[in-house]
Amino acid sequence: MKMDRSKKEADANGGTKIGRAAGAKPESYLPIQAEVVDIDVESSNTYLLSLRPMDEEDELVAVNYSPGQFLMVSVFGLGECPISIASSPTREPLQICVREAGKITQGIMAARVGDVLGIRGPFGNGFPVGSMRGKNVLIAGGGSGFATLRSLINYIADDRRDFRDVTVVYGARTSQDLYFTSEYGSWQAAKIEVGITVDMMDASWKGNVGLVTSLLADLDPVPGTAALCGPPMMIRAVARDLLGRGFIEPEIYISLERHMKCGVGKCEHCTMGRYHVCTNGPIFSYDVVGDLI
Amino acid sequence: MEKIATICVYCGCGCGLFLHVEDGRIVGASPSPAHPVSRGRLCVKGWLAADFVHHPDRLKTPLVRKGGRMVRGSWDEVLSLTARRFKEIREESGPDALAVLTSAKGTNEENYLLAKLARAALKTNNVDHVARLCHAPSVAGLGFALGSGGMTNPIRSLLSSGAILVTGSNTTEQHPLVAAHILEAQSRGATLIVVDPRRTQMAQLADIHLAPRLGTDVSWTNGILNLIIDLGLVDEDFIIKRTEGFSALKDLVVQYTPVEVERITGIPSGDLEKAAVAFGEADRAAVVYAMGTTQHSCGTDNVLALANLVLATGNVGRDGTGIYPLRGHQNVQGACDMGALPSVYPGYQKVEDPAARERMEAAWGTDLPAEPGLTAVEMMEAAEEGRLKGVYISGENPMISYPDRDQVMRALSSLEFLAVADIFPTETTALADVVLPVASFAEKDGTFTSTERRVQRVRRAASPPGEARPEVEVAADLLRRLGVDADYASPEEVMAEISSVTPSYGGISYQRLGISGLSWPCPSRDHPGTEILHQGSFPIGRGRFSAVEQQELAEDLDYPLLLTTGRSLFHFHTGTMTRRTHLLDRERPKAAVDINPADAAALGVRSGTMVVVESATGSLEIEARLTEEVPVGTVYIPFHFAEAPANQLTARTLDPTSKIPGLKRTPVRIRRAE
Amino acid sequence: MTGTSAFFLRREDLVPLLEELAETLEVVAPVLVEGEAAFATWRGGALALDDKNPLASPMEFFLPKKEVLFRYVQYSGRYTFSEDPPRARLIFGMRPCDLQALKVIDGIFGAELPDIPYAGRRRSTIIVALNCTSPGEGCFCRSMGSGPGAEGGYDLLLTDLGRGYLVEPGSPAGVYILRAHQRHFEEADPEDQREKERLLALAGEEIIKRGPSLNPEKIREAIDGVDWEEAGRRCLACGGCSLVCPVCHCFSVLDQGVPDGERLRCRDTCILSGFSRMTSGANPRPALGERLRHWYLDKFVYIPEKTGLFGCVGCGRCSRVCLGEVDRWSLFKEAAE
After folding, report:
1. Locate the 4Fe-4S Mo/W bis-MGD-type domain: which residues (chain B) (predicted)?
2. Are residues C56 and C141 in the same domain?
3. What is the mean pLDDT of chain B?
4. Touching check for C277 and chain A: CB below 8 Å?
5. Which of A129, B499, B593, C26 is most buried, by the most CB atoms less than 10 A from its CB?
6. Are B31 and C55 in contact (CB under 8 A)?
7. How far, in Å, CA of C225 to CA of B527, rounded?
């Protein structure tokens, strides 16, 4: 039941308004409390935290979101920062992928199972999963940007028949920096083509070495819709490559990262020209932001 | 909401501002439009001046060391312990085993009472403060040349200048409101000459920028004077009527030809000439300087050379002229005025002068020591050697701000008793036997005296946190416990006593201090104050020239780079306040060493690389930042950051006259960190 | 007291009226602090209405420079939160430019996901505006269409006619005040209304005469022609232009206190590099010049797109506080009419 409902919500939310969970008011600065129920180590400086809202009335927050949306996560005493949701609304628990960057992310990573974090959201538009249905989908990630794409990949995998060819390309600095390695097999089993590459060779790595764009040359994805997240250099290179393959600008979606304080379009930290990344984004199509990144 | 008019706590500009108070809590600040310096403006620190006041880290209860741990104590317990230990040390080792370091962040009233505590209660002249590390050379140098170490003119006088020479001052960052006046003068047509090895924003905005090698200030100053004499641009009338000693100076500076100056300083002779012409030809010219001039082992010589320049061109005693030693702390001028110095009573009356001593003995009703005491850096040496045993430190953080951090650590650790009063825990309170929580500037009444000798009212806008008390009460309490009458009902009564014993403050009372305050000397109740000094004559009669020569510069092949230190716009001093101000700390969250890209390339260092900087004194690990702001061969570290304390590297080489350490020039070497 | 839209308040009745209002509300008004006009809680006595509009805008009563969003208290790993309710206030003497700023902020903080603390204060604040018959130097509200006369957005509007004030209600709350305190008011003479128009016309001319006279549409076009690198070189990064601007509203959020403490919201400024810098160190607007440009683009392009109103109300405060001696509007010389 829950899954069906969340799918509908995610489709409805994607690309439009902020998802509203029953228990939380997104415009309130008061977070809801969520317990850390599990912690996975994704890389030396990245943890995957599973969260469960503590109050019954907030439970829907854990499923009422869309791939590509983010949460404002609090460690009381250190502050609050935006973290993208790494899980798919089709699967519980709610998960966030946290990479050590500043003192708040350090504080989140210091949390142990049973500790309480504050969360607000979900915020942002999310990927337009509704309009992606029935199309070929290319998903390209670089570095820590892969966390938000994992949400989309699992969302598609759980509803695979609604999408045509699905291809994932992902690059990290070294093999130690690759996220979600245990899941690649399940994606392939769901008929998702997966290409992985690293920048730097090491003894344990037998796979590709090179840029994400080199994977595109190998896999030769059929034009359709694309979802990108990663460092600006990688985004630019992949977008250029895709345009050369016949993808069109309005169908290339990019997830952007900015400094944020509120999540609701007020504090002005995340402005990018006329856009607020928190409310107009974080997913933008290339025709809108191509010249801003 | 209430709005309380007060004075900013940071630099010496002494800006007037309003604190916005809601339900007993300070929620913001805004500039005072009618204040003569701020004129409705503030720098970024000023806009955020009170942001640290309610920080949860504030010291709220007195602390006392018991069994190696700091535990809560009552005020009565810590003050009676402090008084008892000071008495015991005095009886066992004599009064000169005790010392007081006062605070340039404290009010005049607090500094006055703490200096009185040292002299009248502890019976020692061992009292000093951070001025030792900033303008001691100005007090010595300008005191000799002009008869007063104070800034000769008010800041707004710069608006009438035709040429302004700024040296050793990163004015836009350290004294932004002075910079605003200088830039306004420039937009009205004044020529701005900036002499600084670094390409600071001020240097970039200058009409003429001279970038000398570190430590060659006497050379270029003498060189400019030589050119001015050559070009016939000296004010002969002024020299004859109001000065003495010119001919000896003239004979000396002949050696400082443009070619010779270029050899020593690296300043192209053509640029030196341009500066000499601009300064010499201006009808009204001013010299502005700060720590880059004074913090050298030849700091007093540097000041004397600049004084020569203004005297020879007759640029004293008129609007638009003068010499501006910019004070770094909002009340470092006042702390000096109040006699928080080892050699003088309030108003610079010498302790060695029997007449002055008799006057003070009569006023304070007790006998006073005759020998000048130890200076701040000498105190650290005396403590290390065991001669100094008990110290009271008010709001200073020598662990970060003094040279040779390891030695300061040894010195303070070897004391038998250390009492520290502060608003936040610091690296220095960590070494204390008792910690006294005191009120911040926003929680007390009193006065500050700004860099332009402007005595201004500071007003209480909120209550101190927890049990914290204004230090004026703490000092009075200690005075009483040590047997000296100190029944002051308010800081205003302390000011009444100050004005009765300090000739230059004789006419100052709270009632008279309006929005513009009063500039000293203000000797009597009907005196309007003195904005421009030396108008008809000098306090010493004639102005004195000094034939000062370039000091030999020590070079060390093992340490091929020169380190200079300073402050950033976004932080103040050891960062106890600014690093607890969210927007300021966010702006400059960590230390970095500035390296010229050419040097960096040779060292194999990129921006963000961790490097080890080593000097003969010590070493530290710090991130590198590549910038053309520093010239080849020179590196720069701001000293705010406890995690990368620049003063780990600096040495205690003291200026013989003023005892200031040469913080601005330390030979270092750099390598990539492992 | 019905049927008429304007009333007259005699000069000597102003303080008694405020005294009555202060019995139930906190009255904020321009008062003299050490001789200077500033908006603060009125505690009786004289008002500083003859002075120019105070430098610190009364917008701080809607968007405080610093406020507690909520307090958190930890008990065995879980938190409880508390928030302060907004306080009932009356702001007296708010000028048309600041009133216009409030309308702009309504379009940002009051619209689409309304900001709860702002909305609460907005609801609990009564505004008694004062038309600007003595404009300050450097004001250009007329160019921005925000003054010298107020148009809507107030509960009561006063115009100083010399011997007293013309009082016009603009909301049910305003009408209520007129009724509840009717002994202080008399019906206005039609001549009073004409006198108001005459005074505002004079003030408008005065503003134009003193300049700057600017055309916002032309400023918008001129932004890309400005040498922002040079402007950045002269900027001393004080942030004053944003901190004094009644329309600037950006903020930062931080926690103070462990394990119990407060989540604070404080005013921020996009002039600082840390404002947009991400924890990775990357900064979308690394240079001061770019940040200054953004400041103007926001006011003349982005805010109008969002709210239909210019993000500048012509109060002139940014030029008054500029530490870098940049006349903020001479940057757009070609934009002058």
Report:
1. 1-57
2. yes
3. 94
4. yes
5. A129
6. yes
7. 54
Q: Are residues C160 and C240 in the same domain?
A: no
List the beta bridge partners of residue C265.
C67, C253
C-alpha B193 chain-centroid distance: 23
pLDDT band at A131 (very low <50, low <70, confident <90, very high): very high
CA distance B15 to A48: 51
CA B31 – CA B40 distance, rounded (Å): 5
Residue B256 contacts residue B222 (beta carbons within 8 Å): yes
Task: State yes or no: pLDDT of A23 exceeds 60.
Answer: no
The interface residues of chain B toward chain C in range 55-94, judged by CB-CB distance below 8 A, are 55-56
Number of B–C residue contacts, CB under 8 Å: 127
- What pLDDT, on a 0 to 100 scale, did the predictor assign at position B653? 80
Question: Domain B2-47: which topology?
Answer: N-terminal domain of TfIIb (2.20.25)
Task: Pull the structure tokens for residue B144.
Answer: 């000799």
Q: Flag whether pLDDT at B126 surpasses 60.
A: yes
Residue numbers of chain C with a pLDDT score lower than 70? 1-4, 325-327, 333-337
Query: Using CA atoms, how far apart are residues B257 and B265, in angstroms rounded to an integer?
Result: 12
Cβ atoms of A247 and A138 within 8 Å: the answer is yes
Please check whether residues C220 and C166 belong to one and the same domain: no
- Residue A230's alpha-carbon distances to A200, B285, B537, B608, B659, in angstroms, are 17, 57, 72, 22, 57
Among the listed residues B664, B549, B658, the one whose alpha carbon sits nearest the alpha carbon of residue B300: B658
Tokens coding A126: 């999310």
DSSP calls for B535-574: SS-BTTBSEE-----PPPPP--TTS-EEEEEE--TT--TT
Residues of C in contact with B184 (CB under 8 A): 325
Residue C334's pLDDT is 54
Share of chain A above pLDDT 90, in %: 78
Is residue B87 exposed (0-12), middle (13-18) or buried (19+ Cβ within 10 Å)?
middle
CATH architecture, domain defined by B136-325: 3-Layer(aba) Sandwich (3.40)
Of B96, B84, B138, B129, which is closest to residue B110 (Cα–Cα)?
A: B129
Indicate the CATH number of B561-672 among 2.60.20.10, 1.10.10.10, 2.40.40.20, 3.30.470.10. Answer: 2.40.40.20
Inter-chain residue contact A76 with C250, CB threshold 8 Å = no
Amino acid at residue number B192: L
Answer for the pair B584, B578: CB distance below 8 angstroms, yes or no: yes
Query: In angstroms, what separates the C-alpha of A233 from chain C's closest C-alpha?
Result: 12
Residues in a beta bridge with B143: none
Q: What DSSP letter does each residue of B578-590 carry, written as one string?
A: GGGSHHHHHHS-S
The conformational region for residue B575 under phi > 0 = left, psi -120 to 50 = alpha, else beta, is left
Under an 8 A CB cutoff, do C36 and B22 touch? no
Q: Which domain holds residue C320?
A: 216-250+269-335
Closest chain B residue to C268, measured at CA: B583
| C-alpha span between C81 and C87 (Å, rounded) | 19
Instruction: Identify which of C109, C255, C305 has the shortest CB distance to residue A77.
Output: C255
Q: Which of A29, A99, A280 to mutate to test the interface with C (most CBs of C within 10 A)?
A: A29
Distance CA C201, CA C286 (A): 45
Contact of A28 with C83, CB cutoff 8 Å: no
For residue C179, how far is the Cα from the chain centroid? 28
Contact B44 C239 (CB under 8 A): yes
Q: Quote the longest CA-to-CA distance of chain C.
A: 71
Over residues B293-308, mean pLDDT: 93
| Amino acid sitting at position C81 | F
| A 104-123 residues with CB < 8 A to C | 105, 114-116, 118
Answer whether B130's CB lies under 8 Å from B408's CB. Answer: no
